[in-house]
């Protein structure tokens, strides 16, 4: 690319091309608070290492980040435990849907990776051992690395997740039965449902992701949060495990480390090169934003940001 | 057999032969209350259609009936729902350990049969819809059909099960996530942990089983509890599913419909012919009483009570 | 029942009642030779310990016995190896369709029971070690125990099975990879496809089953083929495993040890009491004869032959 | 890195550091021809886009490339079918060992990706439809892209694989039963066993891989073999699926698209940047070269060739 000034038109062009896809797919409906979202919402934001942020569409409107929060809790837990983290959770793709309990039985309570729900519960449990109020610690961390002090939970969403979260409760109890949760099940679930309910915009998410773009450092944070090597490893897990059981297809089509959420957001990061976030609420069968994935594919194809 | 008077010596002889086996196997240890049991306990009781009861060894000492309670809750739920019961739970052997969640995922929350834990939770849920205090209703039912008014829960065991019952909590939440539990998860678990904690002796268990021996009627109960055809069907499920993933081996070696519990009891019933109960706390790898199973095998071989 | 003379009218009555069901279900279509069968065929035969044979409908017309042959090869292999047989094959229900490879992987090449295809291949392999021409030995055995010298293979069916038998070839190779087939894969498959292609009538099948009715002896055979205890054990495996993944439902509804084949036949046996065979080509989703199963259920209900 | 001249010392240094690891792990022993290899063999070769080749240790000694051949057959089949290839085989990590049949049953004969054995058999089947002598076509292709005319099969290895290849035969028959093999099973297996038996050195493998380094073109080949986009996609599949069920761990630790073989070789490629091959015969539990993986990790860490 010649200069960064070209990125806004590319983002806008990409959004126009994928806009027809927002009519397809399904908005997440397992809790009422998510199902009422306007499916025509579509936004995108790009962060470059020089600090430049480029946006298009609804890039400044907040949405439920849901599983994208798992990137930030992983960073927090990785900081806390270092490589001991990998005794509690694996880093292999699961080959199964995000909420499957089957592998957990075979693997005796050690989830395959930190981005399936089971793995994220273990990561959250680690934070429960570390903080008195883990959900507040998570929120504070995200505010700090993004530099946006008014990011917050949507407590209605958190409450609704708790009311409908039988599958997650099953998983937490199951992991506990294998001894791989230390905190009480309800504490872990509360923290987990809260982290999922955090609301951010595309622009805020790419700002929060700058800690990965800058190999572990963030503007308002004095010390390095992770080492460059640890950042690369987070990125590798995003690539191989970040988009549920479609991670292979994502790597194939898009070639970017990415983490998606059922709120319709997808956050992609290439350390040293960029962070990119897209939001479109309607999901494909794997639970990834349908138009969002296509937007990432088009953008990566045109800009050469693919890691391959 | 010539006359019933021969049965006591046979029971005694069988117990002597299997006594060395009480040194092998493992007493259930997942809750402290069960692990402290004296592994040398060994008792057996036989009930015949003429009302005769024959006992040997520790046949009058109470123990934790655990999963044997599933026979009685099945009878209660079958009475309540009739064949509609089979829309909520199957009647196929599972081919998997009693507490596996794998099949539940494949089968979308409909447990394979009422004798694996998942199926028993659904059965208990049915009773939760029927009774304000399901655990008391279960206790009352067992007191009534056995004619023993002082049978009771062991509340320490029930509490301990609740404290360590993460696997059952996982299963209940998982079934709830598929919509196959109607009552709140905690209510179902409470009733379930209580029913498992009921304490009865071999002699009391065969008396409670007379409702199956007599094709649905019990002495102190004015109306028929089940039809003869329904009783045969309960017996068939005991044969194919009553001893966890060793049911085929049980049918092969012993040839009696039976239900075992991790307290070390096994209750066997042949409608129209007899009820037989054995107790020895140490379990084999499948969770069935090791000496108890051998005792049933020897007794069935010598008396010709096998159904095959 | 008062006297045996009553049985023919019951058989006829039962066939009339189930005849409408022959319009439902699906005739096996994986090889052309089976798919061309007339779905209105319907026959039934009963053998009693006194030697009496009672028949109705198309009871004297031969059909492809398919998996019913597994009963006879099991008897042959059990004779050969005795209890050492159970080191090569289990006796637990599988909980999975008859041709599943999944459990075989978990169980390291030891099939769950001798009546799923994998188990029958191991049984046939045992006969391959015993006989130079195992398929002829199997045929000769069936001719002998039934006393019908002109029973034969349908070689077109055997050839067609071989041409379309990729799933069985997969299974045989898979078992071989675990070391649980001794003979060359092709030999085992050839013998297996031949045994499945044998054609017999209901009347001939109940005559062949008299060896189980008479606890191991057959008229034209001087020595006992199995001990009474072994016969009971074969019957128990028929009950728990004889009708694919519907064995629990069969035990529940019908209460008879039985083995079905995709040719539409079902052979039921109660040692000491009777053998019963029904034939109707259209199958239910589990691969068992639809009208045939209902006929067994009605007959068992009316005559009290159920083992429960 | 400053200049390419620095690479040979780095390769040599890395080999010295990992040499103690060659004492650990296990040489593949499922066929005698592989088990006799000298476990102290250790070699490494690097190819850079400017055509430079750097080698260390036993980089010029040929070994059995085994599954590394799957990279080349994938390129051939991708050329032939284009994106229609993905109707026959997926591109998702499997989460299971390389030779598992479990997923194949769930996925109805469409293997998860072209690098597990099942997927490679489908790829080879595609070549069987394309070429009269597919094994010769594969050999010719590898000779051509590497520019080494005397690369050849080890026919003893090919024959031995055929004699012990029951698991692969099981898989091929299983896929055929779902209709996803077109050629006769034996033809596919023959071609497959031959491609696995090809012998090449590290230096030859990185030369063959230049077609990926140069985004689809190779020196002696007039036309482009793949488009740049297709090359990136092959690389993405190598990253997510190239090292069996350890692909996530490989991406995490090493960060290079790579394909391993049980002969002890691992070929890594970053399009536009380099090809790297290592050989050490002893394998870890996942079937990847133990010392080889460590060598890649050290080299990637020191040179910054990681894609993350």
Automatic annotation (TrEMBL), chains A, B, C, D:
The lineage of its organism: Bacteria, Pseudomonadati, Pseudomonadota, Betaproteobacteria, Burkholderiales. This is Glutaminase. It comes from Herbaspirillum chlorophenolicum. Homotetramer. It catalyses: L-glutamine + H2O = L-glutamate + NH4(+). It is an enzyme of class 3 (hydrolase). It holds the Pfam family Glutaminase. GO terms for molecular function: glutaminase activity. It comes from the Bacteria. PANTHER family: GLUTAMINASE. Keywords: Acetylation, Hydrolase. The gene is glsA. Belongs to the glutaminase family. Gene3D superfamilies: DD-peptidase/beta-lactamase superfamily. Its EC number is 3.5.1.2. InterPro entries: Beta-lactam/transpept-like, Glutaminase. Substrate binds at residues 67, 117, 161, 168, 192, 244, 262.
